[in-house]
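stuck on whats below:

***
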Amino acid sequence: MHTPSLVGWLLVLLCAATGGYCLSRTRTGPPEQRATARGEALMASGMAVMALPASAVAPPAWSPWVYTAVFGASALWALVRRHLHHAVGALAMVYMALAMVGMQDMPGMHAASGTAGMPGMHGAHGMAGMTGGSHGAPAGIPLLTGLLLVYYTVYVLAAGIRLAPAGAPGAAAGTSVACAGPPVVLRACQVAMGLGMLAMLLAL
């Protein structure tokens, strides 16, 4: 990760690939898995668009409000369905979108960043923060950002541990084949989404 644009494109590829798989799972499997796949596909699509480097695609000024509306509604729906993790993810997207609005309103921010669009994520203050390239104040509320970082760190570690094969090292080959089924791949996608969210929160 030598340049902000490279980091952005890596996030786009990760989220787009994850979203594509989750979208393919929305019509197969048990109803609970389909609901999970729909939520992850929406999240992945939003993250992929949000991570696009502004040097390649300058987002319109109203795009943060679209994120806020879409993921605000998604958070409410997840709460109604008692999908707490999806609700946290959607609210995190709303939080990042609102943080970008705050960065847009700062005088001289566009001139300082040298890019159009959402400087909180794409400008010199944004993705460059992952490589030590930013010296400005962070966007958003540091305490809330920290809490979300802790949540997703714990989530990724716990979900990654659950992905480990349950069988012993000498288990039959059939166990490995069973572990590679769609439910496990979907959980692996959730881990990838958690990592992507950690990267985007660090970029604020």
